[in-house]
Amino acid sequence: MAQRIGLYPGTFDPVTLGHMDIIRRGAKLVDRLVIGVTTNPSKSPMFTLDERLAMVERECAGIDDAEIEVRAFDTLLIDYARQVGASIILRGLRAVADFEYEYQMAGMNQYLDSSIETVFLMADVSLQPIASRLVKEIAQLGGDISKFVPPQVREDMLARIAPKSV
Q1: Of 29, 129, 158, 164, which alpha carbon lies 20 to 30 A from 87's?
Q2: Is 115 among the residues known to form the active site?
Q3: pLDDT (tens digit per residue) in 146-163
Q4: The CATH number, out of the four listed (1.10.620.20, 3.40.140.10, 3.30.460.20, 3.40.50.620), of the domain defined by the range 5-165
């Protein structure tokens, strides 16, 4: 039987506890989970692509019994899914607004390649409010982000913000 490969794409700037929840749960659905870290021209990242790759790799290292690979990509998502041999694109949902956007994207991806399914996982209820954009804003304004990101990611963010607040 062929290995079932899933792709979880995102900017992961920074990787949050919500992302980690989707990664842990999604890894159980496939034989191998590729986490595709991408650039997004419409977003202004706090961390470079290399920093985000290292951050996601570090945080995924502790996930046992899962074959997880973290890779960068900057192509059309469906083309990248084909490139890594994914039969599933994994997406996390937090709210109705997420669903409307993701539903449209899933429809376009299905039109481009109907052999690749999009699977939605609802974020854990306690993690639904978490969004990388909001975490960055809270951190930049001096708020406590420890409930939203893994401890080392919090340290990474504080180190990045510290020089700007002097």
Answers
A1: 129
A2: no
A3: 999 999 999 999 999 876
A4: 3.40.50.620
